[in-house]
């Protein structure tokens, strides 16, 4: 998605389009960073449980993962980003990311 925005910025002839795409690029980068931080936090909290399941070859039941509010929001945002990028790549949608 960042590469797509970079391409749109380079191809833009209207200065307002450049500003808009730069704002989208900045917002997208911040959103991806926020999601990454919260998902990493979730994985770190459950690292021992996940390692135990992986070592058992799937024989041991995994933990019940209960994300905190920020982690749950990050999971929803990651899904939204994925769906948006997939739609954008298919040419199905042209507007900015949900909530932006």
Order of helices and strands: HHHH
Low-confidence stretches: none
Protein structure class: mainly alpha
According to DSSP, the number of beta strands is 0
Overall geometry? elongated
Strand content: under 5%
Rg: 18 Å
Total of DSSP H or I helical runs spanning 4+ residues: 4
- Main β sheet profile: none
**Mean pLDDT figure:** 81
What portion of residues is helical? over 70%
End-to-end distance:
15 Å
Task: Give a quick set of tags describing it.
100 residues; mainly alpha; 4 helices; elongated
Structural description of this entry:
With 100 residues, this protein is mainly α. 71% of the residues lie in helices and 0% in strands. It has four helices and no strands. The chain has helices at residues 2-11, 15-45, 47-55, 69-89. It is elongated, with a radius of gyration of 18 Å. It starts with a helix and ends in an 11-residue tail after the last helix. The model has no long low-confidence stretch (mean pLDDT 81).
Q: What is this structure's SSE topology?
A:
Elements (H helix, E strand, L loop, with lengths): L1 H10 L3 H31 L1 H9 L13 H21 L11
Helix pairs in contact: 1-2, 2-4
Write a compact overview of the structure shown:
With 100 residues, this protein is mainly α. The chain is 71% helix and 0% strand.
């Amino acid at each position: 998605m960042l590469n797509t925005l970079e391409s749109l910025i380079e191809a833009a002839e209207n200065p307002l389009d450049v500003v808009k795409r730069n704002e989208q690029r900045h917002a997208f980068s911040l959103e991806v960073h926020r999601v990454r931080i919260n998902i990493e936090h979730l994985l770190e909290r459950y690292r021992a449980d996940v390692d135990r399941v992986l070592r058992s070859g799937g024989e041991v039941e995994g933990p019940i993962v209960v994300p905190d509010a920020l982690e749950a929001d990050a999971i929803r945002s990651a899904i939204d980003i994925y769906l948006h990028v997939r739609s954008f790549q298919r040419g199905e949608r042209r507007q900015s990311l949900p909530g932006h």
